[in-house]
Design brief:
The chain is of the alpha+beta class. It has a domain of 47 residues. It has two helices and three strands. Strands 2-1-3 form a three-stranded antiparallel β-sheet, with helices on one face. Strand 1 and strand 2 form a beta hairpin.
Length: 87
Amino acid sequence: MTRILCAIAVVVAVTAFSDRPAQAKESPWCAVLTTSDASVYWDCQYRSFDDCLPHLYEGNRGFCNENPRYQGPEQPARPRSSRRQRS
């Protein structure tokens, strides 16, 4: 019994102290859904309009819209060109 408890403690400690940050799932497209109490829910997990559209065909009322919060992947800064200009 103590071995099981030790194993559980190790697993909990490893997962609690891992270096991976939590990442929000933000994608370029959202399904904007109307709920039963007339409020709107933005489900922003779709990589394209074509990925979003079948979700609406499943009986959900709403439409697909571009995600206003999506900023895209972080682009590394371009190194400056060290070419000489021609004279």
